[in-house]
Protein: Sugar ABC transporter permease
Amino acid sequence: MFSFIYSFTDWNAYRDTIRFTGLDNFVKIAKNADLMLSIGNTVLFAVVTSIGKNVLGMLLAVALCSRIGFKRLFRTVFFLPTVLSFIVVGVLFTALLHPDGFLNQFLGFIGLEGLRQEWLVDRSVVMYTVSFVDVWKGTGFHMIIFMAGLLAIPRDYGEAAQIDGANPLQEFFRIKLPLMMQAVSVNVVLSLIAGFKVFEQVFVLTNGGPGYASSVLNSIAFQMFGDGRWGLGTAMNLILFLLITSFSILLLTYFKRKEVDI
Structure:
């Protein structure tokens, strides 16, 4: 409640009094290209990582719920990045993605020099690079939720579909996917919220750079609070809250209509 109030004030470290300024903080944000870029980067990161985590998580869940060998080993391997600290992940990928790091050297070794990039420095690819690292780290968590949804479906449904002549794709999209829609809604909403709240991924890998190319709402708010511009930082946090709330309500409403009782 107090954060909501302070976002409409000039609250900062350089005044002894707090004055109500209405929408002045939000006007400043709208007129500042760097601050608007951080909002766009936040939405881009949330969308890209949500799609990546959920698509890959679903594919892995389906594969690891099928009749393949070493399932327990593969589950452990794919889930392991989830429990790693992002400090460790950041140090690892900073080395891998360095212009002279392993990834560019490997691309050169296999004759794909044209794909070599300055992954954490090039303004056109840096947000996608950070998104890829987050997808790598978080996919295992969503895989586990999808696996729980798949394993909760009675086998009778699949056997009946096979008797009726359904192929594996038809069985998945017409039987399994509608029955595990609760798991889908949980995963999509959680991944989207995590995407909007991104901070440590950017802080560790790029610190918002180069310039403001990979800045996000939380990194800008962090900078504002560090500079003593608390009212403006609180306004950025309010924008983040509104984005999370609006997207979550829309998605939960949509998926609620798609849910099917087992």
Residues 1-13+20-261 form a domain with the MetI-like fold fold (CATH 1.10.3720.10). The chain has one domain: 1-13+20-261. The chain has 13 helices and no strands. The first helix runs from residue 2 to 6.
